[in-house]
């Protein structure tokens, strides 16, 4: 068959996925979310309206159990939602945290009471939960976190510590805090998860000004002898690490989706511009020095999406260990692809790449977030070096 050489229409960017890979339901979800995002547009303002509408339509809780108001799907579905919102220029960062990490952890390990109290609200978006693991003195080394829960004399817990860069604390009803409890037998500290509701005495937060054009803000959180009821602990005190990774793998897969959406958004703008911008006889997109890097960016985004789909598939199938490696690799690949796509997109627009009108320059810092958080590029390379390749550790 002769290849179709007719120029693609600017209104018809490359299809983000084939129904043969996504299946009919996910394809329909992708189109429906893309349509909602298109209606909303990328105005850069508050995300409240979009959050509320996406919640009403069932998109925010697609991964949560049906009996608690969710869609009964998995991280594969939720990552499609975030990717499509991002591709339209209106990502919802809190999707990474509220339904993906907190919703998953509560659905998998919470008590019936915790599930009843939180999941319906997280699913329809009427309630939000932030997630706090990063500490100023631990950073990439989560094993060094020192936020500690002691048993209170009258029952319950007393939680003390400090967290940094916690997203969306101001708009969340609670924060899921990663702390540590002491093993009564060995005295060793074990990671544990606590739901700390906003307004609990001793829980305070301070805005950290960031050079990011995003609706969601980051905060330093101080926990000063925060008295929590026994029911604030999520899951089993002795299975903290396993439970934590049940939440961290979705976080990585969702960060990949965040990066992929942003990369696609930037690339689509650049392609549209390169098709029409003419400074010699041909549109600039006819120059291979302009076209090839855009083609490369597209290929790299597509490759990263395949790895994201693999990670989501493994995670949703219950293979936490297998999903760990794939989720790390997907996050790595998607962040690198997005940083490159954004950089090339800005360059393709020349001076316009730096104007507020085209809205691309602000993505330079936004794309870097995926390279740093929730786990940096170097820590993923460390993970793959040691866990996958079996190379010795230097630290
Ligand atoms: C916009 C944004 C939102 C965030 N939201 C949240 C949130 O909601 N909740 C939350 O808990 N956290 C959040 N974070 C924090 C984020 O997860 C951390 O910034 C990240 O884990 C890195 O930690 P750090 O900043 O302390 O860097 P550090 O750990 O100090 O690392 C600094 C640099 O050193 C490198 N490095 C460190 N150790 C090694 C090593 N052994 N080998 C090689 N290189 C190394 C790192 O790769 C990095 O480049 C957010 C961060 C940002 C920027």
From TrEMBL:
Q: Which GO terms describe its cellular component?
A: cytoplasm
Q: Name one GO molecular function term.
A: flavin adenine dinucleotide binding
- Which Pfam families has this protein been placed in? Acyl-CoA_dh_1 (PF00441), Acyl-CoA_dh_M (PF02770), Acyl-CoA_dh_N (PF02771)
Domain named Acyl-CoA oxidase/dehydrogenase middle: residues: 130-226
Q: Which residues form the Acyl-CoA dehydrogenase/oxidase C-terminal domain?
A: 240-384
Write out the ranges of the annotated region (Disordered): 1-24
UniProt keyword list: FAD, Flavoprotein, Oxidoreductase
Report the residue ranges that make up the Acyl-CoA dehydrogenase/oxidase N-terminal domain in this protein: 29-125
Q: Does the keyword Flavoprotein apply?
A: yes
Q: Which cofactor does it need?
A: FAD
Please name the GO terms of the biological process aspect recorded for this protein, alphabetically: fatty acid beta-oxidation using acyl-CoA dehydrogenase
Compositional bias per record (Pro residues), positions renumbered to this chain? 1-17
Question: PANTHER family, per this entry?
Answer: DEHYDROGENASE, PUTATIVE (AFU_ORTHOLOGUE AFUA_7G06510)-RELATED, MEDIUM-CHAIN SPECIFIC ACYL-COA DEHYDROGENASE, MITOCHONDRIAL-RELATED
As for family, the record states: Belongs to the acyl-CoA dehydrogenase family.
Q: What protein am I looking at?
A: Putative acyl-CoA dehydrogenase
Taxonomic placement: Bacteria, Bacillati, Actinomycetota, Actinomycetes, Kitasatosporales
């Amino acid at each position: 068959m002769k290849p179709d050489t007719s120029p693609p229409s600017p209104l018809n960017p490359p299809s983000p996925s084939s129904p043969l890979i996504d299946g009919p339901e996910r394809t329909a979800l992708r189109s429906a979310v893309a349509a909602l995002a298109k209606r909303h547009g990328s105005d850069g303002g508050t995300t409240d309206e979009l959050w509320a509408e996406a919640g009403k339509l069932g998109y925010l809780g697609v991964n949560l159990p049906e009996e608690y108001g969710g869609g009964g799907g998995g991280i594969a579905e939720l990552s499609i939602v975030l990717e499509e919102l991002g591709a339209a220029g209106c990502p919802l960062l809190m999707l990474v945290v509220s339904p993906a990490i907190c919703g998953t952890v509560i659905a998998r390990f919470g008590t019936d009471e915790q599930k009843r109290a939180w999941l319906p609200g997280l699913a329809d978006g009427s309630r939000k939960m932030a997630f706090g693991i990063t500490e100023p003195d631990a950073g990439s080394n989560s094993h060094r976190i020192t936020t500690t829960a002691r048993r209170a004399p009258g029952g319950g817990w007393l939680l003390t510590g400090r967290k940094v860069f916690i997203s969306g604390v101001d708009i969340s009803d609670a924060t899921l805090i990663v702390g540590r409890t002491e093993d009564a037998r060995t005295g060793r500290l074990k990671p544990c998860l606590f739901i700390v509701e906003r307004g609990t005495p001793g829980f305070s937060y301070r805005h950290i000004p960031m050079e990011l054009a995003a609706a969601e803000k980051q905060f330093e959180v101080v926990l000063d002898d925060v008295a929590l009821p026994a029911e604030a602990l999520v899951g089993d005190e002795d299975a903290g690490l396993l439970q934590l990774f049940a939440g961290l793998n979705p976080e990585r897969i969702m960060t990949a989706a965040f990066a992929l959406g942003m990369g696609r958004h930037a690339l689509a703008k650049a392609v549209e511009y390169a098709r029409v911008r003419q400074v010699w006889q041909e549109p600039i997109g006819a120059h291979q020095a302009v076209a090839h890097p855009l083609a490369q960016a597209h290929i790299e985004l597509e490759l990263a999406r395949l790895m994201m789909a693999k990670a989501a598939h493994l995670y949703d199938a219950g293979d936490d260990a297998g999903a760990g490696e794939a989720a790390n690799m997907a996050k790595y690949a998607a962040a690198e692809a997005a940083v490159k796509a954004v950089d090339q997109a800005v360059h393709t627009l020349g001076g316009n790449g730096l104007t507020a009108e085209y809205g691309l320059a602000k993505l330079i810092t936004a794309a870097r977030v995926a390279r740093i958080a929730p786990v940096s590029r170097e820590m993923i390379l460390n993970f793959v070096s040691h866990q996958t390749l079996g190379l010795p550790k230097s630290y």
